[in-house]
Amino acid sequence: MNAGTVLELLSAGSDDATALSTPGGAPLSYRELRAVVGETIAALNAHGIGREDRVAIVLDNGPHAASSFLAIAAGTTAAPLNAGYRAEEFEFYLTDLRAALLIVEAGKPSPAIEIATKLGVQVARLHQVPARGAGAFTLEFPAEATAATTRPGPASTDDIALVLHTSGTTSRPKIVPLAQRNICASAANIRTTLGLTASDRALNIMPLFHIHGLIAGVMAPLSVGGAVWCAPGFNALKFFGWMSEARPTWYTAVPTMHQTILMRARSSLEIIRDHPLRFIRSSSSSLPPQVLHELEAVFGTPVVEAYGMTEAAHQMACNPLPPGIRKPGTVGIAAGPEVCILDDSGQPVGPNVPGEIAIRGANVMAGYESNPTANAEAFVHGWFRTGDKGVMDDAGYISIVGRLKEIINRGGEKISPREIDEVLMDHPAVQQCVTFAVPHDKLGEEVAVVVVLREGAEVTERELRDYAATRLADFKVPKKVLFRPEIPKGATGKLQRIGLAQKLGLA
User: Fold this and answer.
1) 211 lies in a domain?
2) Which of 179, 212, 231 is the last residue of a domain?
3) d(C-alpha 494, C-alpha 464), whole Å
C-alpha cells in the first residue's frame, strides 16, 4: 500500500488487529484508532483548527503521544515538542511555529500552558479513555466558543503534516516542514527495507517528538497493519520487562540506548532467549562496529544500521537484512531516496571518492521554512546537501566520515572524530567514548575525548593515549582524555560533539 496521507496510511490495519499497546493497558484496535482520528479532526475543525494550522503537542512518551500525533497530522499540522523544555524554550518554539493550538495532558502541569496563555494560543486538554484502549483520548477545549475552520476535513497529499526544528547546535534552529507525502513515503521506505508485515510488533522506546520515533517507531509498522507497543520513555532498567510483556519482533533505537541495554543484557539472557527478535535497528547517529557485533552476539539476531535526518523525514540509507550483505561501519545502501557524493563544486563523484553526502526523493522536504539563505546553501542541482562527509564504495555502501561541522581542524590538519572513536572503542576498558574539538590558542582546535569505562575496568589517560598512538598518526592522538560516569546527551539520547567542550567546561 502506497499511502499519500496519514489517514490513508492508517487504513492498512484490519479492524480488530492491535494498533497500539502499552504496559498494563488494553490494546487499541485499528478500528478504534481510526475512530479517534476522525473524532479528533472533527473536534479540531469545530474549534477553528483546520488543515495546515499548527498544533503543538506537549505530552510524555507513550501511546497517547503516538495517537495524538497521528490524529493531528491527519487533519492539521502536528508540531510535537519535548515536554521537558523550560518556559523560555516553549516561548521560542510556540512563537516560531506560529502555533494555533497547544495540546497538553489534562491535570498535568507544564510551563507551556502559561506561555501559550501569554501568547494568546488556545489550549486543549487531552483526556485519556483507557476503556477504549491504549492511546484513546478526547480533547477538552476552552469553554468560550470558537468559529469553525474554513479548511475542514482530512489533509491532502501536499499539505504539511509535521513540522520539526533542526537542533540549532551552531545556529538558530530551522523549521523543517514535511508534507503528508514526505512522511508517508519515508514510512513506506522503512517498511520495505525491513520487510515489515502485519505480524510484526515494534517496541518503541524512542521519544515521540523526534523524527526517528515518529516515522520508524510508529508510522512504518502501522503502514503495513502491524502493532506498536509504546513504552513510557526509555528506561534500561525496565527494558527487558517490557520486552517480556510486549513480545516484540524488533525495536529501533539510537546507539547510546543500545549500549545501555547491553550493560543490562547479561542478567536477562533468559528473556532474550524466550522472546527472540527478528532484527534490531539503529539510527540517528553512528553505531560503533564493536557495539553492533556485541548486540548481535547477545541477542542472536541481525543488527542493521540506518542513516536518517529530519529533512529526509528520517531514513536515507540502511544496511539490508539477510540474505543481503551487511557491512558494519557503513550505513548501508540507499534505502528510499537517491544518494550520491558531491565534490566541493556540487558535482557527483565516483566510487571511493570522499565528499558531501546528498539526497533527493519523495521523502525529502521541499525546503526550510522562510529561510532562503539556508535553502540556497542546502540545495544544489536538485540535490539536498546533508552536511555529512562520506564515501560510497563500488557496491553502493555508504560510510560516514563525520559531520562537516564536526571535523576537527588542528592547525590545518583535518581530523575525523569518528575515526578516533572507533580506535578507542577497541580498548577493552572503554564502554563509550566521544571525540570532539577543544579550542587551542595556536592551532585553533585540539583533539579531546570523553570516555566512559566498563564496569570494574581501569585505565589511565596516558595508557589510552599510548594505545591510540599505535593506530593513529601523532596529530590525531587525543591531547586530553576525560573520564566521566556518563557523557552528556541531547534530548533524543544522541551524543553531540558540537558544544561538548562548553558542556564539559573546556571552552
Assistant:
1) no
2) 179
3) 24
The torsion of the CA quartet 431, 230, 181, 138, rounded to 10 degrees, works out to: -140
**From CA 6, how far away is CA 98, in angstroms rounded?**
22
Q: What distances in angstroms separate CA 151 from CA 40, 45, 177, 284, one per listed residue? A: 15, 8, 19, 35
Domain that holds residue 141: 25-179
Question: Long-range contacts for 284-288 (Cβ within 8 Å, ≥24 apart)?
Answer: 284/210, 284/212, 284/254, 284/255, 284/308, 284/492, 284/494, 285/254, 285/255, 285/256, 285/494, 285/495, 286/255, 286/400, 286/418, 286/421, 287/255, 287/258, 288/255, 288/421, 288/422, 288/425
- CA distance linking residue 216 with residue 214, whole number of Å: 6
Within a domain: residue 95? yes
- Cα separation of 173 and 183, whole Å? 20
* CATH code where residue 413 lies: 3.30.300.30
Separation of alpha carbons 159 and 155, rounded Å: 6
Q: What is the CATH number of the domain that holds 35?
A: 3.40.50.980
Confidence at residue 145, expressed as pLDDT on a 0 to 100 scale: 66
Strand pairing report for 18-21 and 28-29 = antiparallel
**Element containing residue 392 per DSSP (H, E):** strand 383-392
Q: Which tens digits make up the pLDDT trace of 139-183?
A: 999 987 678 999 999 999 999 999 999 875 445 789 999 999 999
Strands (E), 404-479: 408-410, 413-415, 430-440, 444-453
Task: Summarize pLDDT for 224-259 with one digit per residue, the tens.
Answer: 999 999 999 999 999 999 999 999 999 999 988 999
How many residues does this entry show for the chain? 507
On whether residue 383 sits in a domain, the answer given is no
In this prediction, the residues of the chain whose per-residue pLDDT falls under 70 are 1, 145, 168-171
DSSP-derived 3-state class of residue 271: helix
Instruction: Give the model's pLDDT for residue 1.
Output: 62
Domain end position, chosen among 144, 179, 214: 179
**CA-to-CA dists, residue 159 to 51, 125, 177, 259, 477, angstroms:** 7, 25, 10, 38, 50
Cβ pair 64, 95 in contact under 8 A? no
The structure's pTM equals 0.87
Other beta carbons within 10 Å of 450:
25
Q: Cis peptide leading into 232, omega within 30 of 0?
A: no
What is the total count of domains within the chain?
2
| Domain assignment of residue 140, yes or no | yes
* Percent helix, strand and coil across the chain, each to the nearest 5: 30, 25, 40
